[in-house]
Batch of 4 targets.
Target 1
Amino acid sequence: MAYRHFEFIEKHAWTLGILTAIMVSIGGLAEITPLFIEANKVQPAEGVKPYDPLRLAGRDVYVREGCYLCHSQMIRALRFETERYGHYSTASESVYDRPFQWGSKRTGPDLARVGGKYSDEWQRLHLMNPRQVVPQSNMPDYPWLALHLIDGKDIQARMRVLRMLGDPYTDTDINNAPKAVAGKTEMDALIAYLQGLGIDNEPHKPDAPPPAPASTGAAP
């Protein structure tokens, strides 16, 4: 190409700007498109299912209250992390999370495998006043969660939207949602969500059921 063509582009700012935007867009698509394609290939592993109504409500409470700002749910494939928290996190166990809660901020401990580590009562005390069970904790209190009941109709609406996005909820699952959360508080839901982390969402073989939650717990 003759230099006069380049000279025209260099001397006309609008032309240079438009062509630059086009080239940057092409380069960006070349980098991003393969990532989107690869992400859509991730399938739930054996044993990983969508959240049941109560845990779905609990996850929404977890996100609403900003718990992810201090707690991650990603264990890296490093020895010092797996020895402390358990098996490293995999994409397949978070396939039904929108958005996923991996993160990297650890003001508090990682929660990817916290399910069954403590009893329901320990979790309740911890949410009401963390310093009852962990004196050095700087986590805020969440007593109001015990006062607010879960809205079954709202959970049904959320499940319908998630089904549109690909979660395999059946009509029966959605119709039974109000009954599953009847009389349950936001605290009950949040505890159910936490008690399933690393148990209900960790891949396992059909002939090897996930471990049952512990009946008692101790402070970290």
Note: Confidence is low (pLDDT under 50) at residues 213-220.
Target 2
Amino acid sequence: MPAAIEVTGVSKSFRIPHEQRTYFKEYFLHPFRRTSYERNDALDDVSFTIERGEFFGIFGPNGSGKSTLLRILAGIYVPDAGRVRITGRLSPFIELGVGFNFELNARDNIRVNCALAGLTTNEVAARFDEILAFAELERFVDQKLKNYSSGMLMRLAYSIAIQIPFDILLLDEVLAVGDQSFQEKCFATFEEFKQDGKTVILVTHDLPLLSRFADRVLLLEHGVVSGVGPFDELVDAYRESALVG
């Protein structure tokens, strides 16, 4: 049986401009002025495998390439080099508000997002009340999303993500904007996913959370894999590097 995710030799770089011209007048007065760029190697030859049904954590210092890696797994970014193989249906929950139309209310956004994920009209109707109930947004279902707080958006987005049939769930730090009680509801779903054999990839700075749920973790530093294995084996190395940094 193939692994849920196989990442082989993945690298990704970005160009950072040293000069940013924001006004049309600047282009008009200096049409031949060149902007110099600096290369930022976000990921360098990253390789790892995630087995089916595994709760896999990704952690490391700020700027280590964690979010870039997650976006590559989600298909948002294309790697410059290397290969990503995903076996199963993916549900990404990595950026707050992505996929939402803020001029529409929650009712319409639920319908649109579920339809885009491949659910039929009957399937959306069957899941609609459960999505709202889990998000605790019944009172605000007809309110436009542009008037939602970040916490309300997170509740709605997570509730939709877990109602869409998936084999692999990608989660970023976005859960951190929720209040404690809703976070605990999310953590309860983690337990359910583990029991159901779902694969979960979580990027977080919350070390106790990784200790609680992760079967294995990947420590990413400066775009390079520093280690893959049980959390207890890697956390000391991470804390030492954080102190040095």
Note: The mean pLDDT is 88.
Target 3
Amino acid sequence: MLVVVPEPVTPLPVPAPRAAAPSAPAVRLSGVELIADLFECMHDLHFLPDALVGADFVLALMLDKLPSAVALVHFYDIDAREFVVVRAVGAGAAKVMQIRTNEKEPLIAEAMHKRRAVVLDDAATDPRVQNGRWALIGDPPRSIICAPVEEGGRFLGLLELSNPLDGQPFHEGDGHAITYIGEQFAEFLAAHGLVLDPERIGD
């Protein structure tokens, strides 16, 4: 019986692994697309246990959808009529943790009066952001969103973002998105209550 022995197969050369190509810059969602995306995300908020966990969720969501240098979440102290920073992210943001701002501060007062976000596309020379928390942070604000967290005229808090990471200013569509987050967060806080205890808020 003739046995055929196969010739050895020479393996093909394995190409060296390529260096990962830099990823394309993220596209900032806007308008209806952004609101639709937020509508899906906000469902998870209402399953969270308390106000501070909710604040962490909202802060992360804002930064995910509108990447920014600084993000702040305030709760409202009705007895003192002040807004208290309970969560802060960004360079220098730790300096403003638990800082209090009077409800009559011009930028806050405008947002609460309008019941929607105030968008400053050129904040560099705006006198409303030259003092207080923005001066302490040390990252000069170029563009800002300041959005109310209120329900039926009842103040509950405030959401703020400054300096989009893509270098472009915020626009009204971004303001609508943060207004929507603020509305949903207001429903959550109305049901769960606010946390103003400094020890629970932390530094």
Note: The chain has a mean pLDDT of 86.
Target 4
Amino acid sequence: MLEVRGLNAWYGESHILHGMDFDVGEGEVVTLLGRNGAGKTTTMKSIMGMVGRREGSIKFKDRQTIKLASNAIARLGIAFCPEERGIFASLDVEENLMLPPQVAPGGLPVQQIFELFPNLRERLRSQGTKLSGGEQQMLAIGRILRTGARLLLLDEPTEGLAPVIIQQIGRTIGMLKAQGFTILLVEQNFHFAATLADRYYVMEHGRIVDEFSAAGLQANMEKVHDYLGV
């Protein structure tokens, strides 16, 4: 579904990504692992066209997107859930949830989103500023599920959350995979990521330095810990 080749990206004069090569197959959950500053979030933003300069090849369903603007990329069926969540403080839960346009049929109906995240139904009229971190993360994920996008880019979805919320998000990712969604995940919580993905790419200094299957990750745990410094 997603094919990245020779991807370079810059913020101003800073060269962040140096020839990234990786693939995400339809229906897969793929995780980018790496220490802080490795370029994981920049990779997500580059896929979405949200960096000032990028070069190389990014194909989504065999369509080249490297020259497209971010709004055009989103309309192809790619949705990005950023680490900072992007909840509008002045809007209530329902308004935040309904804000993004639908880009394709097949998005989850609001009722199903509420079944995934019952807290959102209970906080429907609460402003974004009144939500806990966990509720904001649920809203950020629920919001992109409405759009009909089939490739979901989730950047640090468990950052700063309580264990019970982390478990809920893990169950949600498993359910989305079972429904055929494709997910590219960036996650600092290695133990969380290790239970979810089909494949793992390890990043260092803006490059892919290793790749593991789920079984390979378990068999090379010491090596992975060395990469991540954990």
Note: The CA atoms of residues 65 and 164 lie 38 Å apart.
